[in-house]
Amino acid sequence: MSNGKAAPHRAITGAGRRSPSGHPSGRPAGLLTPAVLESVRERAQITDLFGPAELKKSGREFVARCPWHDDRRPSLSVSPSRNRVHCFVCGKGTDAIGWLQDRQGLSFQEAVLELARRTGVSVAEGDPEAQARFEQEWRERRQLMAQRTEQRQQFHQALLQQLEQGGGGADYLQNRGISPETARRWQLGIAGGRLTIPLNDAAGQTVGFCGRAIGSQEPKYRNSTGDLLFQRNGLVFGLDQAAEAIRKQGTALLVEGPLDVVQLHQCGFTHAVACLGTSVSALQLQLLQRQGMKHLLIALDGDDAGQAATERLIEQVQPQLVAGGLSASVVQLPEGQDADGLIRNQGPKAVEGLIAAARHWLEWRLDRLLAPLAAGSASPSLETLQAVEQAGQALIEQLPDGVLRRSAEHRLEQALQGNVSEPGASKPQPQTFPTLHEPCTATGRQRAEHRALRLFIHAPECRELLQCLTLQDPACRVAMEWLSSLAVVAVDGCIAGMALQLADQLPGAMGPVLTQAAVAAPELIAVLQRETQAELEAVLDVLEPVAGSGGVSRQEPVASKPVASHADVLPITRSAEAAVQSLDRLPEPRNAGGRVVPSARSGARGLHADDRGSQQRWGCHGAHERPNHHQAGGGDLSGPLPGRCGIQTAVDESHPAPATGLNALPE
C-alpha cells in the first residue's frame, strides 16, 4: 500500500510495447486533480496489473520477466508492500501509474484516469454531472469495443471459410502473395466484396476497419468513419504487432498502407507500421516515440504524393532531428511503387537493399532541392539557379551551427559553382556528403557492423581482429569479405580509394554500404585514428560481448544462428564479375625489393575462385584457419584486445561460409 505521500512519478520512456490508438478519446478535461492522483496511488495495486500466470511468488514479493531487456530468468521484482516494480538487472522500475503508461503507451493523465475507473475513484468530486459524463463515455466506449470485436470475428470467419472452400477473398490473397498464416495472424476478413483489415490500437483492440476492394469497386480503400474509438490521424496501423521490434531495434519503418505493413511483416520486416495515408500527424509520431523509436525510416510511396508527404514529414520533425532527439532517413522507393508492389515484383531483397541505401534526411532534402540543376542536358537558366539558391539558403537558415549546416552549405555552393563555370571549363566532379553518411540501419547491431567496416578501412591495425567477426547483415558480411581481399592487394594498407572504386561496380546494397564505410570526414578519420582502441572496444562490446564487460554474458547456442551460406553471397558476387575484373586493373602489389607479389592477386579473387567448401578465411593472408565447432576459441588470435575472438562456429558442409554463435546482445 502507499504510504500516503505523493512520491514523484518516474515514467519510463522508450521501453513500452503497447499504447492505445491515441485518439483524444473525449475524456473530460481538467479531471486530473491532486486529490484524484492521491486516491489512485492509494488504491491501485501493482500486482493487479499482471496476469496470474505472469507472477511467481518469491518470499513476501513476486517476480516476473522484465520487459525492458532480454530476461531469460525472471528478474523483475513486483513488491505489493512498496507498490512498485524494479528490475535488478537493468535497474528500471516504476509504480502502478508508470507501469500502465509503459505497457499500454498511455499518457500520464490517461493512465491515472484508467486506474481511477478500475478502482472506483471519483474523478469529479463535487461535480456529479461531470462524473456522470465520464462514466457514460466509458460505457459507450466498452459497447463500441465489443461491437468491433464481434464484427472482426464475423469477417474473419467468412474469410477462413473461403480459404478452405475457395472464393474471391481467398483468390485475392493468393494473387497478392499473402499466406493463410498471415491472414490469420492479422485477423483479415471479407465483407461485401472487400477485404477487411482490422485497425487495432497498440493494445490489440480493434477500433475500426479498412476495407480494400477485391474487384472493381470504388473507392479502392474505405476506412471506418471517425467516432469515439477511431480517428485516422490518431492510429498507427500495425503498432500492436510491431511494438516489440521497435522497442528492441529503436527503429520504425513507416509506410503508407495496411497491406504494405502486412507484406513487410510477412517478409520479416517486423518493425513496419503505416500512417493510413500520406499525412502523418504529431500524435502518430508521439505514439511511435512512446514505443522507444529513436530512428525513423520513411518509406512512403514513390509517387509525387508520397514524396511530397515525405517532405512535409521531415519538415515537421526537423526540430527534433537537428536537436538530436530523433534521427531519420528516407528509403527511396521506385517511382510509382509502394512497398507491397516492390516485394511482389522484386522480392524482399529489393526492400533490404533500399533500406541499406537509405538517405540521411538532410541529404534527401538537398537531393530534392538541387534536382532542377540536374534536369535535362542544357545548363539551367539564371532563374532556376536563383530559385535553387534561395530555397537552399532558406533550408540552411533552419539548421543550427554545426556539421549539418556546414555540410549543407558546402554542397549547395558546390552545386551552384558547377553550373556557373566558364564555357568550356570542366565542371567539378560532385562530391559525396561525407558527414551525413551514417548507416541508416534497423538495429544497434547493424550500426555496429557498419562501424566495424569503417574501422577496418581507416584503422589498419584493427583488421586482423575485425576479420574474425562474423557479421549478420548480408550486405555488411559480403562487404567485409571484399575489404579483406582489398587489404591483401593494397601495399601501403590504404584501401579507402580502392573501396570507393569497387563500390561503383557492385550491385544491390553492397555499393552504398562500402561507400558509407569508405567516405568519412577528415575530422572523423582523425578521431578514429586517435581513439582507435576506444572505437574497437565499443564495436566489439556490441558484436561480441564478453563476461565482465559491463553486462551479463549470455551465450546463445550455435544452432540458433543461421548458417551464412553461399546462397546469400554468390548471387551477388557472381553478378559482380566486372568488379572482380576491375581488381585485375589495379597496380600489381610489390614487395620491398620491387618484385610482384603473385599471391595477393589470387587472394583478392578468392571470393569467386573457390565454391567447394574451403574453411580458410578469405583475405587473412592465409595465416588463420576459422575454428570449427569443436574448437571454440581455437587459434592464437592475438591483437589489441587479447581473448576477444573466442568465437564458436558452425560450418555448413555444403558451403564454405561459416557462421558464428555470438553472445546474446545487450539491450
List keywords for this structure.
single chain; 667 residues; alpha+beta; 5-stranded antiparallel beta sheet; 5-stranded mixed beta sheet; 9% strand; globular; disordered N terminus; disordered C terminus
- Spatial strand sequence of the major β-sheet: 1-2-3-4-5
Question: What's the rounded overall pLDDT mean?
Answer: 74
Percent of residues in helices comes to 40-55%
Q: Could you tell me the strand content as a percent range?
A: 5-15%
Assembly classification: single chain
- Tell me the structural class: alpha+beta
Largest sheet: 5 strands, antiparallel
Globally, the shape reads globular
As a whole number of angstroms, the C-alpha radius of gyration is 28 Å
Q: Summary?
A:
The protein is α+β, with helices and mostly antiparallel strands. Helix 8 (258-266) packs across helix 11 (339-346) and helix 11 (339-346) packs across helix 12. Residues 1-30, 422-442 and 546-667 have low confidence and may be disordered.
